[in-house]
Amino acid sequence: MTPDSNSAADPIIRMQGVNKWYGEFQVLTDIDLSVRTGERIVICGPSGSGKSTLIRCINRLETVQKGQITVDGIELTAGGKNVDAVRAEVGMVFQQFNLFPHLTILQNCTLAPMRSRGMSRAEAEEVAMKYLTRVRIPEQAHKYPSQLSGGQQQRVAIARALCMAPRIMLFDEPTSALDPEMVKEVLDTMIGLAEDGMTMLCVTHEMGFARSVADRVIFMAEGRIVEQGPPAEFFGNPKHEKTRQFLGQIL
Ligand code: ADP
Ligand code: MG
After folding, report:
1. What is the pTM of this model?
2. Which ligand is nearest to the CA of 219?
3. For residue 155, is pLDDT > 60?
4. Is 128 within 8 Å of 110 (Cβ atoms)?
């Protein structure tokens, strides 16, 4: 296993000796991962290798049976009330947008800030319009999700996450469900976030994005981190046979 090449003294995310099982099936094995503030990480690997499970552990959508996870000083494995604290710090964007279909775009964006940040409606709407403007769809604010294209819906999902002022953003194959012509608008939004210094972990097979944006690319197979490194090294000189096979299939 490649040693963790980025074990900064005070990482914003630290996973140590993480192991997780679904019943008898071990989905994550001996995961050690440290992420520093502002770092941009791309995670790739074959389907079923545990990528989604790994990032879902970071906002406690999944629990682990063994090992430690600390996010911005919050110890997740300690359980209980830490879950709310960490959800406030970590935004997540899914493959299937997951917008609330019965709420307008604006309401999708204001719901969580009003409920869990205690914002007034006026304040939440102001914040929401700021981020909808940033993802370049303020004019869609009063429409419903079904009236938007997939690319627009995914940009709303990103804006909605940003309204909670997260310190970390997790992306789980955010462009995989999109028609090809909409991939770029979502990647451009993500590039903008990266340029602003957001700490990001992105599960994606968009290797162009990985090359130009990632500080580090992590390759997973069968529940393990098999190889990781800066994109030039990762793509230019992949060391592990499984990495080479994978890159051979997708590039
Ligand atoms: P990836 O995102 O890399 O495709 P996942 O993390 O989604 O991989 O899944 C890893 C493995 O765990 C797969 O074999 C999948 O079938 C299994 N798995 C995922 N979620 C569950 C679950 N809730 N219960 C049982 N097995 C699961
Ligand atoms: Mg997945």
Report:
1. 0.94
2. 1
3. yes
4. yes
Residue closest via CA to ligand 1's atom 19 equals 53
Q: pLDDT (tens digit, 9 = 90+) per residue, 88-130?
A: 899 999 999 999 999 999 999 999 999 988 999 999 999 999 9
Which residues touch 47 (CB under 8 Å, ≥6 apart)?
none
CA distances for 184 relative to 74, 93, 133, 193, angstroms: 35, 16, 18, 14
Which residue, by CA, sits nearest to atom 1 of ligand 1? Answer: 48
First-to-last C-alpha distance (Å) of the chain: 23
- Phi-psi label, residue 20: left if phi above 0, alpha if psi -120 to 50, beta otherwise: beta
Q: Which residues lie across from 167 on neighbouring strands? A: none
Q: Which residue among 27, 54, 205, 222 is best mutated to probe the pocket of ligand 1, counting the most ligand atoms within 8 A of its Cβ?
A: 27
Question: In this predicted model, what pLDDT tens digit does every residue of 17-31 receive, in sequence order?
Answer: 999 999 999 999 999
CA of 232 to the centre of ligand 1 (A): 29
31 neighbors 61 (Cβ within 8 angstroms): no
